[in-house]
Write a structure and sequence with these properties.
The structure is a homodimer of 643-residue chains. With 643 residues, chain A is of the alpha/beta class. A six-stranded mixed sheet of chain A has the order 14-13-12-15-17-16, sandwiched between helices. In chain A, strand 21 (420-427) and strand 22 (432-437) form a beta hairpin. In chain A, helix 10 (357-366) crosses helix 17 and helix 16 crosses helix 17 (587-597).
């Protein structure tokens, strides 16, 4: 059969494909990741590519203008090469660039040791530990078994009630003990209630013991290399979750994983990502894979299910049942993660289908569970999650915010990566615009924090009313109609990276308002369920990647966060990653998540709450239909009347 | 290359071999097991075969008389076929015939439930258990994870602190729960301190759950199939340990296993034996392998090491260090045992290199560890083991008795199988002889209990003096000289199965006296170490296959057992097998072995006891150099003077 050659720019990667395959399929085969939300159904319009040479046949679609089609722009999943072709993947459609967060996160989390160790809330007791044992050789008066000799010395050092050794290590012990002349290094890993002798080596290698903490995000996978001896974070790496090729959000991935084979494909995606990150960490820090003995992963319930290859179908179906919320500690190799051959993999426990280990880790890091005062935690992402509580009780709920905070479903939306507008301020009404762009180059589009700023500024200067509709007389020339649809030009094409205008439409603003309304209403509903109101909340912890770059003042102005004194707000950054890191360094921290936080978090299912929909409708205003809920915003200026 | 055909009778199995191979090698290739103690070095003389047709070349040896050689008798390991040959393997040289003990043992142990269950010393709590769960389907108000739903129901039924589920079962749970419409059967197995969900099946299969108890003896492997639901022993099978081909006793097997490959060969031997027994049990009882969820093995320390493939070399070298005395519970498949694919394998813990799990099981079965009174336990085999103690303390020692009790190293010795003389009584001096032969046929040789009877009778009628030397005037015509060596004809060739005289020599009697002396002296030494003497011992439990058919009166007369009232003696039969069976049915029984018996048994190493050798020398008389130790024997009749 004749094959067609497809070459991708700028990578210059080529692949031979059979006729009848799409450009998207060719890209997958070539290892060129292309953005996609819908998984190839042609309904998200995210997989734009440019045909640079050769002929193609494309299905008709609603996402491209005639001018774009003439310029060669096409949707990769809807386009079939008719012969050899050269395809450019523009930056906006690329997946896999390293998000800028890694380095900043590393700096922020380097002192994780402040949570663990002497004088800190959690005792230093890493989940895997290397002990250098100088054993007395056996004599006729002391001829206990080789295994018992090791156990006895370990138990002299600390209390280990249940110890186990697998058959393969047991078979090595006699030889290694004698080869090492009774001087050996033993690695002991914690598995549930059991301490497992995972490895025995001759001589002293006790100073080389590392763990990897991983935040398995739906969008980004973040990994830190932790020196389990010194408690230091010695390396940080991040990359996009390759599962994105099979669907941008959790639901589309669950839909994709409808056979065991596809489920395992998604497992392999994220396992490969983790292996890539670990490989990069070892290169960065000159560490051997052999010396990495433990991986601790944290993520939402779907992500941890996919990591372990567990059935996800029931997460999506009412009544939303996960396969397991407390996953067993297994050998990392069982899912394909490459560290020491006997190394272990733990997963931060989840609460329910939509309250994952990431939130449990957030709670640990925030310390809500240790305080007398009532605090609130808000983790904003595609799925918004709220926790309220103190040391005696914890309640949580989740609400679907949609992908708007991450740039999804927004005309010029994008993730917080190079070229994203993350900050906007208008001057002189809306006559001047100041943009902060990630990487400092020309802008490509709007990420979540830029979108939030934009909506807040549009509202502040009166360009939109409190329902989110444009006020033409305030917008002036920046408002225009394209094919009957009103759009506000944020940055003209002449000043952007791709020559296309960065715009925002009323539909975009509507998506954003629904997202912020869902978060606010969820927080309010959770307070109602616990008999409290916002004034009872002494601290608000904001978690999640979006949260890091959030302008709290603007978030209050548009009604995303409650109207509390700014001093009560605190960012905890990537709590998911940090919680995993604390668990690696402190068995006590892991136990607190497993035995105190996760099992005791009461989950309120908002979809069965009859009041929720009413309250939600009231929140679809800027800041809210009931302005009394936002007194500081009301004081700032009178509400702009709805047109 | 030309090959030679070797046919074995009575099996009529044939095999083609290359020239230069021995008859023994041909037999191994043909799957015809032939007895061997020395492993093929031509120094034990046990592998006698008869050349029925064809020519052979044989190395000269000291074991065969000229008449035997003329009759075609040859040693299989020293004989090379020169062409096609037909070889008969006489019964005495066969390995693999089912020992007669299996059926009797089954009858004896059928009521093992009397040790386990209500009103019995140990609570019924089998190491694996099947629960039929009728779960309520999840609702929005009760949408815990599938795994937690199972755990919750199990914990409603009983206290299970630590529960774990492996990844492969976790992956099945969601599908099986829904396929079974929330009616499922869950198998939970005990592994150390953890209860493992080993299996989940739709519907109710809770009535079909079996365990296999195995006594891994150096000579015989005995297995019982136990219904873990009803506590009944439903089947019994036994066969010789195939490792015998590589050496008859522990030491020669340890010497053989000097590379990992050879070690694993020995593991495969016994694993195949266990698999054969399990297969026979499933046929006998119409049970499916799938329904066997647990195997519990008990045996001496070397046997359990070989079963697990653990290094045995240091067991033999001073200071006699085993690899492990507390083996982990593993998946049976890890060593190759074929039951349910996820089924578990436990091993009764040992105390030291020469005090094995068989003795620990003996103690459990005897109940010494539960009594206020001081008791003694004697397990007689190639290695004799003694325990003394009560509920507060336990002391033990072991002494090498040599293979005499099992017929090894004795001119006409054989194991207690078909054709073995197990009982002898003389009449009118030694003029008449009454023999009890296993199977009732013509005798082939002497097993341990027959040998004991013979020595006792020879001594009683004055045919031997108290040093074991023949008294010719008492023996009369039955004593003759063959090649200058005196031998006493027990049964003339005309009355035996193979036409050869069954005889006993002074060397045989010497071997036996050394064996009985070692046991007695070990018991005496252990008492000395604990500050007691025989009069303090309220009960003597006799264990081991040899023990079952022992005449206690005769054993006292020759000085093997101490001179105590006969009422104090009690046989416990195959305590090793029975202890394994109790463990299968009662976690508490297993815990008692692991936490109370094995770790608390003080082991005295007799080889470093300076008094032992003196005392041993004194025991090399019938019954003892110090007749005051055997007052009832002294009362019976005055000692026969040493010549």
């Amino acid at each position: 059969m004749k094959t067609l050659s497809v070459t991708f720019l700028p990578d210059e990667k080529s692949v031979e494909i059979a006729p009848g395959k799409t450009v998207m399929e060719a890209a997958t085969a070539a290892g060129v990741p292309i953005n996609s939300i819908c998984g190839g159904d042609g309904v998200c319009g995210k997989c734009r590519v440019i045909v640079r040479s050769g002929k193609v046949t494309a299905e008709p679609n609603e996402f491209l203008t005639r001018r774009e089609i003439q310029r060669g722009v096409a949707l990769a999943c809807q386009t079939y090469p008719d012969g050899d072709v050269v395809i450019e993947v523009p930056m906006e459609s690329r997946v896999g660039a390293v998000p800028r967060l890694a380095a900043e996160d590393a700096a922020r989390f380097a002192p994780v040791s402040q949570w663990v160790g002497e004088g800190a809330p959690y005792a230093y007791e890493p989940l895997s530990r290397k002990d250098y044992l100088q054993l007395s050789p056996p004599t006729l008066d002391d001829n206990i078994s080789d295994q018992e000799r090791i156990y006895r010395e370990l138990r002299r050092r600390r209390d280990i009630p249940i110890m186990q050794t697998g058959l393969s290590i047991l078979r090595q012990i006699p030889t290694v003990l004698r080869a090492g002349k009774w001087r050996v290094t033993v690695t002991v890993g914690q598995r549930g209630g059991t301490a497992e002798v995972m490895q025995i080596e001759p001589g002293d290698s006790s100073s080389r013991n590392y763990g990897v903490a991983v935040d398995v995000g739906t969008t980004t996978v973040d990994a830190h290399l932790v020196d389990l001896v010194s408690s230091e974070t010695v390396g940080a790496q991040a990359k996009y979750n390759s599962q994105i090729s099979y669907g941008e959000d959790i639901i589309s991935r669950i839909i994709y994983a409808n056979t065991d084979e596809k489920l395992q494909t998604l497992r392999e995606c994220v396992v490969n990502d983790i292996n890539d990150l670990i490989a990069a960490l070892t290169v960065e820090t000159k560490t051997r894979l052999h010396d990495i003995s433990y991986v601790m992963c944290s993520g939402n319930t779907t992500m941890t299910h996919l990591l372990l290859g567990l059935e996800v179908a029931n997460i999506r179906r009412e009544p939303y049942v996960p396969s397991a919320t407390f996953a067993p500690v297994i050998r990392a190799a069982e899912v394909g993660i490459k560290i020491n051959a006997r190394g272990l993999l733990g997963v931060v426990p989840s609460v329910s289908s939509y309250v994952g280990g990431d939130l449990v880790a957030d709670v640990l890091v925030s310390g809500i569970n240790d305080s007398e005062e009532v605090s609130m935690l808000v983790d904003m992402g595609t799925n918004g999650e709220i926790v309220i509580g103190n040391k005696d009780w914890l309640a949580c709920c989740s609400a679907s915010a949609g992908p708007a905070f991450e740039g999804g479903g927004i005309t010029c939306g994008m993730r917080a990566t190079l070229g994203a507008i993350e900050h906007i301020a208008f001057g002189e009404g809306c006559r001047t615009t100041e943009c902060g762009v990630i990487g400092g180059a020309k802008p490509l589009g709007l990420c979540g924090s830029g979108l939030l700023d934009l909506v807040a500024e549009l509202h502040r200067v009166g360009c939109i009313d409190r329902t989110g509709r444009f006020v033409p007389e305030a917008c002036g020339a920046r408002l225009r109609r394209d094919a009957g649809l009103a759009e506000f030009v944020v940055v003209p094409g002449s000043d952007t990276a791709l020559g296309r205008d960065v715009v925002i439409t009323e539909a975009d603003i509507g998506s954003f308002i629904r997202a912020k309304g869902a978060i606010y209403t969820a927080a309010e509903a959770l307070l109602r369920h616990t008999g409290l109101d916002f004034s009872d909340v002494r601290h608000v912890y904001v978690a999640g990647a979006f949260g890091n770059y959030l302008n709290v003042g603007q978030a209050i102005r548009i009604g995303l966060l409650p109207d509390l004194p700014l001093a009560r707000f605190q960012f905890i950054g990537n709590g998911s990653l940090q919680g995993a890191e604390m668990a690696l360094l402190s068995r006590q921290a892991f136990d607190v998540m497993e035995k105190r936080i996760a099992p005791n978090m009461t989950h309120f299912e908002l979809s069965v709450d009859p009041q929720f929909m009413n309250e939600y409708t009231g929140s679809l205003f800027l800041p809210h239909t009931n302005i009394e809920k936002f007194p500081s915003v009301a004081r700032e200026r009178p509400p702009i009347p709805v047109r």
